[in-house]
Design goal:
The chain has two domains: about 80 residues; about 50 residues. The protein has about 190 residues and is mainly α. The longest helix is centred in the middle third of the chain and has 26 residues.
């Protein structure tokens, strides 16, 4: 099996096909490859100028996703920032998700955080205008999004208080401990 994989790699090199162009970026993310040449370590492998440029595009795309922006907005940002067409922007975003992880989970957290910050800002603006009712409503809504008002999340689950407490005996007398153990077994 190993011989087959080596021969496939050799054939791929001969015909100029790169089986996985993201391998170098993964090596960089694992600190096995330098971002740019280091003059203190002249023989150390590093990313090429083209790879550094692509890595910056991937980082930009994932940073946008981390802030909670929708994919359509990220695609238009990539197009404007780097002067690429929509198809290339889609490829950059897809490969950024592959490199850095699940964008959906990050995107949901980012959108929630953005909504919280927006509601807090509205609350502060309403407070500055002396509209205290609106300020309170925005603030409470922001804190609900943060999970501050979740009863179960705060530790006030009523079922926790319905169980009978268990008696604990702290003693050094072996006879008392054996008696307690017999009672527990029954």
């Amino acid at each position: 099996m190993a011989k087959k994989n080596q021969s496939l790699k050799r054939i791929s090199k001969r015909i100029g096909v790169d089986p996985d162009k993201l391998d170098d970026y993964m090596l960089f993310l694992n600190d096995e490859l330098l971002f740019e040449p280091d003059y203190e370590r002249p023989g150390a492998p590093c990313l090429t100028a083209e790879q550094r440029d692509m890595y910056n595009k991937y980082s930009f795309a994932f940073a946008q996703a981390s802030m909670g922006r929708p994919d359509s907005m990220i695609l238009s940002s990539i197009e404007k920032q780097f002067g690429v067409k929509e198809g290339m922007a889609r490829i950059i975003l897809k490969e950024a998700y592959y490199l850095f992880g699940d964008g959906e989970a990050v995107s949901k957290k980012g959108k929630t955080r953005a909504a919280i910050l927006y509601l807090e800002m509205l609350s502060n603006l309403a407070r500055a205008e002396r509209d205290y009712k609106t300020a309170k409503e925005c603030w409470v809504e922001a804190k609900k999004l943060e999970g501050l008002y979740d009863i179960e999340g705060a530790g006030w689950n009523p079922s926790d208080f319905r169980t009978a407490p268990q008696m604990v005996i702290l003693t050094g007398d072996v006879a008392v401990l054996k008696q307690q153990q017999r009672e527990d077994d029954e």
